[in-house]
Amino acid sequence: MELVFSGYRISQSYGWKPFGSGLQFHQGIDLVKSHKSPVHAFTEGTVLYAGMGKTGTGLGNYGNVVFVKDKNGRGQLYAHLDSVAVKAGASIKKGQVIGYQGMTGQVTGSHLHYEVRKKTAPSYGWESDQVHSTLEPTAYLQNFYPQPAPATFTKYIVKAGDTLSQIANHYHTTVNILKAENNISNENLIRVGQVLRIPNAGNPVYYTVKSGDNLTEIAKNYYTTVNKLVSMNDIKNINLLQVGQKLRVK
Length: 250
Ligand SMILES: [Zn+2]
Fold this sequence. Notes:
Blueprint: E1 9-12, E2 15-19, E3 22-26, E4 29-32, E5 38-40, E6 45-52, E7 64-69, E8 75-81, E9 83-84, E10 91-92, E11 97-100, E12 112-117, H1 130-133, E13 134-135, H2 137-142, E14 153-157, H3 164-170, H4 175-182, E15 195-199, E16 206-208, H5 215-221, H6 226-233, E17 246-248
Antiparallel strand pairs: 1-4, 2-3, 4-12, 5-11, 6-7, 6-10, 7-8, 8-12, 9-11, 12-13, 14-15, 16-17
Helix pairs in contact: 4-6
Bound molecules: zinc ion.
């Protein structure tokens, strides 16, 4: 499982907290790096609002905020920022700097309050019932990206007369995949009795390249490596991905 808040110290988690003689609901998670350190977007999305959260809008007391609508229609709120680095209407990518950690709004110290609201309208999804109008951020982000089934392998023992391309054809895979998976540098040098690992035999998974994608990010999302993607897809120049290009990722 991905570590969604790596680099941050969690100063307060989501949920019910002791407060005075009772309990108070914390509708987000408080994250600390250092004052004015860059805040990178946890996912891609569209910025609906960036700037000082005005009272009565659903963003009051949150200081400088960036409010992002994501692919699930949820509202991700980055709050108490020292300053914002994006504008309303912008499409942002995962990892993009959206602002800087700060202590604007109702706070006692510099931190990032990150909140996931179920809706983005009205009032940017704010409801007085915060228990039921927000989601636990850690689990939300861990499940944000598709988690492909773990790779499965078939074993094949090389017989006399076999060629790697015959074996690849038989298992509906490619010579490049077999070479990458078995550390074979010369496909003509396989020997009788050699045990080959055949990954995901017959179940290739493809990904269609979108604008702004890069191989590192795609590899990360599919729990593979850039080298494997390059080899499986015969990529000559890793910086020349084309939008709409179909990549085999498994
Ligand atoms: Zn908070």
